[in-house]
Amino acid sequence: MRIGEVAAAAGVNIQTLRYYERRRLLSAPRRRESGYREYSPDVVELVRFVKHAQTLGFKLAEIEELLALRKHAPSCREVRDVAAAKISDIDEKILQLSSIRDSLRRLVTACKRSESSERCAIIEALDAGRP
Hints:
By secondary structure, this protein is mainly alpha-helical. The protein is built from six helices and two strands. The radius of gyration is 23 Å and the shape is elongated. The N and C termini lie far apart (about 55 Å).
């Protein structure tokens, strides 16, 4: 398969495939005499795996680890540990986002109270570097 065919079948653009090659998520494909990349059909499945892992929040470095595990027929425990670590990361991000949301709510409330003021309470808080 040529690069455009793989990209279309996997639902990504050509630059994504080239980037995955540079990151070594994909092996360097064989080249035709013309210089065109020649991919095996299983690359489509591999790219879909990467994209699905990304939708679950995995970063490319983590996906590299998952691909290594996938390649070497891991125990379920190893994969579960990687997924559990991702859940912990997500929980931490949720706490951070909740804190940010609460800070913004306080700023919006302060802004509503000071609508008659010449200075915006939100701008003042951002200028002062406080939430």
